[in-house]
Amino acid sequence: MPMTTPTRRAQRRAQLTPGRLGQFTKTKDVGAPIDFIWPCTNVGDAEGVGFIKVLESGIAVWVGPPFPVPAKQTVGLTLHQTIDLPLGVHNMAPQMHEGFPPDGIGLIAADTLALTVVSMPVLSAVGLPSINGITGETVFVFPIPAGQATVAVPISWNCQNSGGGAGQARLRLAGFLKITGTLVTIPGFSTVTLLLVFNASFVNFQNQILTMEDQTGAILGTYAFSWKGG
């Protein structure tokens, strides 16, 4: 009786298919992060590996890390990157690749998008102001030394710029005293302490409103306090 050769079992392999490139804000500030999220489904019966590469004018700008994609599962391939591109519109070409960076073993999908890089300040007051070195108080007595008519009282308040472009801000006093501070430049992604000094005299309690405002006059923070000289 002749012998038969057993049928060879089909070789297990991965088979990656792309989903839809995740939606994200297409206008980003200089230095801000951007996230590409691209679902990848493995319809094969062995684990695969995929990654995202982003090109501009045919040159790879960003290359994401490799992500394992188990058989019969969907994994969101991601690329988290800081925007270090110059200002303007950038025609980007995201790609999904199989294998390991930087080139992989095959292109799975490609897409296009226009990314606009801008430079805008985003200013905000941080915490409470410090008045004569004290934070959080609303009523003050400022001793007036003998022989003096007034005493200088410093005010400080932190201003944060969470945007990529430089902005300007200042402190202003309204009420019994009306004093406008000098505009100070706050570089992108930084915090600067704004300063203002007023002269307290020997008078009854006076109500003051301290504001922080940007270069357009928009109010970033308000703080009310009272004082008397003593």
Summarize, please.
This protein has 230 residues and is an all-beta fold. The protein has two domains: 16-118, Immunoglobulins (Immunoglobulin-like), CATH 2.60.40; 123-229, Sandwich (Immunoglobulin-like), CATH 2.60.40. It has strands spanning 16-18, 27-29, 33-42, 48-56, 59-63, 67-69, 74-82, 88-98, 106-110, 113-118, 123-131, 134-135, 139-142, 150-161, 167-175, 179-180, 184-186, 190-201, 206-214, 219-229.
What is the annotated CATH architecture of the largest domain? Answer: Sandwich
The number of domains: 2
Strand content: over 45%
| Largest sheet entry | 7 strands, mixed
CATH class of the largest domain: Mainly Beta
By DSSP, the count of extended strands is 20
Overall geometry comes to elongated
What's the rounded overall pLDDT mean? 90
Give the termini distance in whole angstroms. 119 Å
**Strand-and-helix sequence, N→C?**
EEEEEEEEEEEEEEEEEEEE
Low-confidence stretches are: 1-8
In CATH, the homologous superfamily of the largest domain goes by the name Immunoglobulins
Q: Helical element count?
A: 0
Instruction: Determine the CATH topology of the largest domain.
Output: Immunoglobulin-like
Oligomer kind: single chain
Radius of gyration (CA) equals 30 Å
Protein structure class = mainly beta
Helix content: under 10%
